[in-house]
Write the structure tokens for this entry.
Amino acid sequence: MKQSASDAWRAVGRPGSGPEISLVMPCYNEEAIVAQTIRRTLHAFQVPGYRLELVAVDNGSKDRTGEIIKEFDAAGVGVKHVRVEKNQGYGFGILSGIPHCTAPWIGFIPADSQVDAEDTVRLYEEALACEEAVLVKARRRFRMDGFARKVVSVTYNVLFRTLWPGIASFDINGLPKLMPREVVRRMQLSSSDWFLDPEIMIKSYYLGVRCIEFNVFARMRSRGLSHVSAATCVNFFSGLIRYRFSNTLSAWRRSLVSSREITAHGAGAAGADS
């Protein structure tokens, strides 16, 4: 009889051993695809034998997303269900999931299956191979987006590089993103909207955490609807300007200096950009 993904995952887990990596996956009205994404992610980590903790956040969904996540949680296959009663943004979903992570590595993944789960495993393996704290992320080098979406993405990333020329990335919002638990703690992430990804990139730069990007193929959604709209694009662009010239970033940098948690690179960058 063929072994199910759930049974295979139970076989991998070792008694008394905790997860090696926690992935936070915010889900907003994703009933059409969330089960497929969860199964693929569990299976991808099960094959090489990595112990995964998948924190699936029902981010205020009004459909069956939460019920589906609860079914996986009840099955004991390494999925945690977290419920946000009212959707307050993409970032808030991730921030709500972080406190439930228990592994030494924490990552953020989308619920839409546009990036193969096997690529997330590959990113994790590259992170493990490094002998320093790193931020490992995907760069959606091959994207099945429409022309207008590509123009917006390129313009956005060029603006980001203009405001923070020291951050060498042309896919700021690319997911998955993986980093050590301690780095996440030091970032003190606060953006509840779509600006969370740029916040991660900016703070990793000031912390002196090396960012490693790997090209991935980003396919079109097979099910469900995208939650990126014109309003999202406005949020992206206004967020960059606001964050660059507001006191929020400066206050965070000062707190790191006072607590001696910022690296020499980060302190130098902070002085240069003040």
